[in-house]
Amino acid sequence: MSTRSEAAAQTRERLLDEALTMFSQRGYAGTGIRDILHAAGVTQPTLYHHFADKASLLQTLIERHYGESQQRLEEIIADQATVVGKLFAFVTSSLQHCCVDPRVPRLMFQTYYGPTVPEIDGVLDKLTEKRFRLVVSIMEHGMRTGELAASNAEFLALSFCSLVDQPMNLFSRKSRPKRYLTPELAHSIVSLFMSGAGTR
């Protein structure tokens, strides 16, 4: 890679990094293009050389971080034979991903629960639906094997996702999320689900 290409790549990553920080702190609507330009130390033409607009920055961040997490989840869960193993893998992987860079879960929750961003609605819906369907498939597997009581797989998946997402949303906002997003928390979430909604 030439020196010019390396510089361009570094500039693009700097823009994404600053956008991630600001979107995760202020939300998409609360962050202006000028804020990102100032933080990244670049001019407006430079930003538009790399991204079409502010929504393009957000879409790139979501696809990169959420897509990366989704791929890892699918691989880890496929290696587990039991429902408990699959659910525990789902939660621990999700919590670990939050701890790598706490800005990422903050961005996701800001975007998902904040004001609607019409420009990226389809992208976000597609990724969240894919994650939800993964959990539905675990519930269906559990009912087939008899590990879970016969029920509505989508309702069970929604219940489980609620148990997982609320602690992630809360604890990823703490100054030291690793103290809270632990394997012990994952075990408690799975145990609560299995002894409640999923009990035989």
Output the keywords.
0% strand; mainly alpha; 200 residues; Tetracycline Repressor, domain 2; 75% helix
How is this structure best described in words?
The protein has 200 residues and is mostly helical. The chain has a single domain (54-195), classed as Orthogonal Bundle (Tetracycline Repressor, domain 2), CATH 1.10.357. Helix content is 75%, strand content 0%.
Present the secondary structure layout.
Layout: H1 3-26, H2 33-40, H3 44-50, H4 54-78, H5 83-100, H6 103-113, H7 121-145, H8 153-171, H9 183-195
Helix pairs in contact: 1-2, 1-4, 1-6, 4-5, 4-7, 5-7, 5-9, 7-8, 8-9
Beta-strand content: under 5%
Structural class: mainly alpha
Q: How many beta-strand runs? A: 0
Radius of gyration: 19 Å
The biggest beta sheet is recorded as: none
CATH-assigned fold name = Tetracycline Repressor, domain 2
CATH superfamily: Tetracycline Repressor, domain 2
Q: What oligomeric state best describes the polypeptide chains here?
A: single chain
Task: State the name of the first-level CATH class.
Answer: Mainly Alpha
Poorly predicted runs are none
| CATH level-two architecture | Orthogonal Bundle
Count helical runs.
Answer: 9
Average residue-wise pLDDT:
90
How many structurally independent domains? 1
Question: Could you tell me how far the N terminus lies from the C terminus, measured between alpha carbons in angstroms?
Answer: 58 Å
Helix content: over 70%
- What is the chain-wise order of helices and strands? HHHHHHHHH
